[in-house]
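Dear colleagues,

As part of the handover before I leave the project, I'm documenting each prediction I ran so the next person doesn't have to rerun anything. This entry is a single chain, and its sequence is reproduced below.
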Amino acid sequence: MNLKVGIILGSTREGRVSEAVGNWVLKNSKSIDDAEFEIVDIRDYDLPFLGTTEDMSNVSSWNKKLEELDAFIFVVAEYNHSITGALKNALDLARDSWNNKSAGIVSYGAAGGARASEHLRGILSELQIASVRSHVLLSLFDDFENHSEFKPRDMHTDNLNSLFVQVRDWGNALKTLR
């Protein structure tokens, strides 16, 4: 059975570019055997902020989706040197659904999203998600025209392919723990 990998779009704001980046990741994933990739947009789940409501139906749907997946690739926007509040909330609204799975990070921002990625790695570790070494850092200055139209440089393809292989291999190894 193929590994199921969710490409998590970590931004929900208007005018976001995470959809374009996520679609680029999905398009390039076609070269990877033994894994199925799909976009998982946290905006589609209309998640409440933790502790603000007793209606947990959307949270249940979110957790059910995560339980179907074996691994993740997070598309991470850097806001104020960290991840978005929406992504942090989505991470906090699940616990066991994340455990013993692998993850890769594709980040973007003025500094390639590096600071957000480092924050995310600490959170992933606490959730028992093994983040892989390969990482794609996209620059708002060099990979986006006018900071909005996504035009990735060819140099990112090799890193992305390494990320896919590591996520797949670690995901398969961690599957034995679940």
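DSSP finds five helices and seven strands in the chain. Residues 156-175 form the longest helix (20 residues).

All the best with the project,
I.
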